[in-house]
Amino acid sequence: MTIKDIAKMCNVGISTVSRAINDDPGINQETKKRILKVIEEQNFVPNKSARNLKMTEAKTIALLIKGTNNPFFQGMLRIFEQELQKVEYSYLVYPVADDQDETAIAMELVQERRLKGIIFLGGLTEVSEVSLDKIGVPCVRCTVSNPSISVGTKDYAVSIDDRKEAYKAVDYLCKCGHKDIAIVCGREDDCSIGRMRQEGYMDALLDHGISYDPQLVLYVKGEVCEFSAQNGYSTVKALLESDKKVTAIFLISDMMAFGAYKAIKEKGLRIPEDISVIGFDGLDLTRFYHPSLTTVRQPCDQMVKASIEVLLGAINDGNTGEQRIFPAELIVRESVRNIE
Amino acid sequence: MTIKDIAKMCNVGISTVSRAINDDPGINQETKKRILKVIEEQNFVPNKSARNLKMTEAKTIALLIKGTNNPFFQGMLRIFEQELQKVEYSYLVYPVADDQDETAIAMELVQERRLKGIIFLGGLTEVSEVSLDKIGVPCVRCTVSNPSISVGTKDYAVSIDDRKEAYKAVDYLCKCGHKDIAIVCGREDDCSIGRMRQEGYMDALLDHGISYDPQLVLYVKGEVCEFSAQNGYSTVKALLESDKKVTAIFLISDMMAFGAYKAIKEKGLRIPEDISVIGFDGLDLTRFYHPSLTTVRQPCDQMVKASIEVLLGAINDGNTGEQRIFPAELIVRESVRNIE
What count of CB pairs under 8 Å joins A to B? Predict the structure, then answer.
């Protein structure tokens, strides 16, 4: 049942049905009554686009999320919800499994659902122009991009500079007098944002004249959910069981920091008296840990708004590829001690 | 571009195109090559249903989630992902805002997206037969239902018995010798699962001969996110600042228990030495708190599988309305002390 069918049944044009639905004054009141009656009888629900001017064109985009179990993306989803409503777009959320290729799924969805655009959350830091061409609608990568790689004419990305922001966290630890600083990274073969955050760690140590100790660079071993509490817990537990001297730990996600809290407290050590901890992302829950977690907060609000703006610019105005990088913020709370 | 267009271009029938795509042996190899070449040239991506027998019928359902910010639903989403893949259904996830009517959205989606069915996560504990009729496809309420209300012929529900399971938590506290037991509920006007869990609390007190003290029944004051860490934190903080004697607190969600941990520790009190805490839901993070949180774990896996089974039974076999109730499990960990 479409607006066309209703028009046919009422023996009027589509625009007249639209006027009846939209309560437009330029319609005969008798005709309007007749149309609304048919609509009610047929249980016809006008779709969102029928309430706008362009009736034949549904304005829908898809959010493809890699890492559905990541509370960080979950928080962003709510902001997308609010912001897309403002621009009168409807949207679908589509979780992508760890082993799935998001560009292949994007191609399929665009065909099946007649989408105007795609936003990728998580996943790829780079995507080929060939893939983007095949998808056929504008795609924005949100939260994942590498500022040191320039984007192509069809590549849109909105993110922080992960390397620079991780630097802030480790620089802060160094300024608090820490020299024996461990980092808990993603998997050793990670070449996405985890790798960039690790580079920021290296940069900060170098600037503070602290020599790099490979034994303090810890990779998680898990197959999946690499930024999870479980991985933070088991990695830090193993570190504390070794004899390695360490006064501070930087975990590249807040979830991993939550796991680290557990490992440290189980060992009978105190945060920050015995070990300082710093996370990354700025999850809301970090405020509710005891001690509250010092972290680097990503500007989710700004990144979501910019992603939508960039996507609409590409859809409506044919804007060429671009990359927008936002600053994150070091949030100093209670989990880092000054040891100088 | 659809399979019909490809068929027209190749001057063959739709079933021949389908055979080419599905690598069916009953097709001339030359014809197959020709079709695949056109498919490649046109960048045509066969949709999932084209790979099954019923080509014209997309098998898609929608998950409508009320409470996108609830990690509990987030965990379930992953299970839906796995299970729907097994039955070769594709799905859309659609977040429903707190103030939106999920049945109205369902009606709209069914029309726009030609869905086979709907699963509601969170939200309504009851839904009228009239609304269900209007939606026009089977709808399963997952995690929300009231076992004491029998379902209509078009009403499908899969959940735990919230009242009985909350009873388990409070019964356990009583058996550990606690008499001054507070409960942190949802808002005072809540008439959904929060209310049922509160009834379970009352039942347990009654059975243990503990008189009911209204001052120990705490409602959250927030407008939104009623089961959040923030609400758990502020409610328990206020309780501890009063002179009210309390040895144990039951929070009707784990997220609220996380907030309670913070309030208790900030006050300089210990868990469980000074105050025992028990949560509800069984979030994965409960294991990573210190002390680990005693909670009631909902059988997410079973509930998801049953929801899909019930929905497919309604879609394919026209099964009549039903309600499936699963038992939850008390997970005894470290946050409750025996004070006898």
Answer: 102
CB B266, CB A288: distance < 8 Å: no
Q: What is the distance between the alpha carbons of residues A2 and A13, in angstroms, rounded to a whole number? A: 13
Distance of alpha carbon A80 from alpha carbon A63, whole angstroms? 9
Give the contacts of B238 (CB within 8 A, at least 6 positions apart).
Answer: B218
* Edge-to-edge strand ranges of the sheet holding A276-278: A217-218, A181-184, A248-251, A276-278
Instruction: Give the type of residue at A26.
Output: G
Written as six digits, the tokens of B224 are 């939104």
Residue B183 bridge partners (DSSP):
B217, B250
pLDDT at A240 over 90: yes
**In chain A, what are the domains?**
3-51 (1.10.260.40), 60-160+300-327 (3.40.50.2300), 163-298 (3.40.50.2300)
ipTM tops the 0.85 cut:
no
The residue among A19 and B194 whose pLDDT is bigger is B194
What secondary structure, in 3-state letters, does A72-114 show? Answer: HHHHHHHHHHHHHHHCCCEEEEEEECCCCCHHHHHHHHHHHHC
Question: Under an 8 A CB cutoff, do A112 and B47 touch?
Answer: yes
CB contact under 8 A, B285 and A75: no
Number of other residues whose CB lies within 10 A of the CB of residue B313: 16
Q: Is the pLDDT of residue A126 over 90?
A: no
Chain A residues whose CB is inside 8 A of the B75 CB are 69
